[in-house]
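Recap from last week: sequence in, structure out.
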Amino acid sequence: MKPGRTEAAVICLALMAGPSAFAFDVLGIGDMPIRYMTEEDLTVFKAAVITTLDQTNDGASASWTVEKTGAHGTLTPIKSFIKEAKECRKLEVANSAGGRDNRSVFTLCKLPDGDWKVEKH
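Predicted structure tokens:
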């Protein structure tokens, strides 16, 4: 599996699932920060991703943090475009949790119901 692919799957799960569905198999995601995030971290991260995709201009960064755990990150939309009649955005995600740091770029497209989904490459 290519680097970042597993984190993309986890981000997709986090974006598509409700807060109670944040349990996932962490064995396959190696030593990435998302493996060390608490349910609260994931909830804050998910909200930040959605807000950033919906409200932040390309090239502008938005930050998120959970004081209690120290988990934090920066989200930067880098390109907006239309794909198959859907609004899509490339999003650079830089996260830190549990002493681990990671930076990846994902393509997410908005579904008709308003949810964002990570696109497969």
